[in-house]
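Open question from group meeting: does this chain pack into something compact, or does most of it stay loose? Before anyone orders reagents, we agreed to write out a predicted structure and look at it together. Recording both the input and the output here so the notebook holds the full record.
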Amino acid sequence: MVAEGRHSTVYSAFRERAGEHAERPFLRAPASAARGYADHAIEYTYAAARESVEALRGLYRHLGLCVGDRVALAFDSRLDVYLHLLALNAQGASIVPLNMAGSDGEVLHVVRDSEARLMGGTDAHRERLQALATEAGVTVFEPVGQAETDAPDPPRGDSSTEVALLYTSGTSGKPKGCMLSNEYFLTTGLVYNRLRGLCAIGSSDRLLTSLPPNHMNALATSFMAMLLCGGCVIQLDRFHPRSWWQTVREEAATVFHYLGVMPAILLKLPYDPADHFASQIKFGFGAGCDPKHQEAFERRFGFPLIEAWAMTETGGAGMIVAHEEPRHVGHRCFGRPPAEVEYRLVDEHDRDVAPGQDGELLVRRRGEDPRKGFFSGYFGDEDATREGWRGGWWHTGDVVRAGRDGSLFFVDRRKNVIRRSGENIAAVEVEAALMQFEAVGNCAVTAVPDEIRGDEVFAFIVPPGNVTDPVRLALDVFDFAMQNLAYFKAPGYIAVVDELPLTASQKISRTEVRQRALRLLGSGQVTDLRASKKRSRS
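Structure tokens returned:
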């Protein structure tokens, strides 16, 4: 593992690892993930990756890229993303990953807002990229490397130089670009590599991820964790539930990263006693696993799901991980903060809450520089950066509770807390309850205004199959909620829909959920159940 302070750039750390682990696998896409552009698996050893990176660096030198320039890239989840990141980092330039699943307007916002100098991507996106580039006034280039004629220059830039401009999911307003530096990337990898207990990793590890590289989990966390220890990243194109365990076996994965919905989906697959991986997989690493699923998953598949907390803005510098016992399985515990991370739990006026009470999580790095290793700020939005850091603490927007042993428990996003008649209702708690009903395939809960009670609970329900009578389904869901939740937490409005709006990182778009709920009120497409929400007299 690379020692802290030994390198100031991601590229220089990679060069050292490539020298030590030349013939070991570094980046791999299974044949199933490469289908559509290759008829076989794609794999780079550290030596092969170094050769490709130097060729790409030759391209960027030829194009005149230098420190501070940005290149918008549309490679989806291909390994090219990581190779171009390393090549651009060697030049002191930065990547702006594009999510081509977004609308033209969403992609244009990122290209324009980032002030990208160039755009490049796969042949499949070339025509669309050219049209978008014309509108944005940006040049499209052919992202094919060229051989270096001379020995490559030393790495350009330093620890503060930007590696990537990564756009947040946009859960509130338009996505903002998070400036992520060399220090951010290196810190994230170092923090992961220093985890012990259940999360110890080394050069023999193979980390499987289906999360896209336009998300910090894949781009910074899993990539840097493996790069710094000499391990291998196995990148999938997306999450394929039915072939997941087959891929785990074939790829000899020892670690995988997940989002909360993945364990729930895997548990719904038919039981197979062969799907027990205690001797192969060390751990799953992620966040948001439903409390009712975590223990069942671990028992069935034979390895722990390690819940962790971080956000794009904090990176590894503020990461908190439940990597050692007690993990409080099934209680949304994400561990105890390490010694390097200071935290507070505060109310809406930034006053510390009483022990055992819910409060917004504030974090910072211990020491002289509270922002060390965090993101460098929102590009072009100093006011938002300043607001997030008010009082010298990063305001996460997450509501958390501290246990007696110092463990932290996730409650909900502050903006997802519904305040109805003086009662605080966590949207995620209502969602978790509704998901236990067999007639609910997926759901999302949000607050809508109520003249009398302040807020009311609004639930979108996605059934697992076709529904002929959505009102009947809404009534059944409501009855189930009344039996399993306090009456005031049951949905006052229910809308049956085909799908939920998702962000670029495949999370529920809370902003769009709320906006859609507001649009549907009074439309006749919603079942109004407010009159039935009554306290039991028993």
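Observations to bring back to the group:
The mean pLDDT is 92.
The chain has two domains: 10-389, 418-532.
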